[in-house]
Amino acid sequence: MPKVLVQLREDRIPPRLEAVRDALGLSDDDIDAAYGIVPIDSASGLYTVRVEESARARIESALRDLGAGDDLEVGIFSDPRIEPFGPPEL
User: Fold this and answer.
1) Are the beta carbons of 56 and 4 closer than 8 angstroms?
2) What percent helix, strand, coil does the chain show, rounded to 5?
3) Residue pLDDT, tens place only, 26-70
């Protein structure tokens, strides 16, 4: 299933995955626990989590409720699958 990256700002360093999941209204199946929380800029509290594309509408609503809609660094970003282009060269 397609996934997206959610970048958010959190004052607690490092944030707990469960707290992020609850703040964004996600279920255990929505969030990629193996990916975890990736610090983008931990000094300023910027982190990324990987979630199912199907949860996008709920995440957008949660980010608006958290007041994160005006922050250009905070939001939802694509996570395209990276594959080789064409057959392998031998």
Assistant:
1) yes
2) 25, 25, 50
3) 999 999 999 999 999 888 888 999 999 999 988 888 888 777 655
Neighbour-count burial of 36, counting CB atoms closer than 10 A to its CB (0-12 exposed, 13-18 middle, 19+ buried): middle
**What CATH class is the domain 3-78?**
alpha beta
| Segments making up each domain of the chain, as ranges | 3-78
In this structure, the number of other CB atoms found within 10 A of the CB of residue 3 comes to 19
pTM: 0.79
Beta strands (DSSP E) in the chain are 3-9, 38-41, 46-52, 75-78
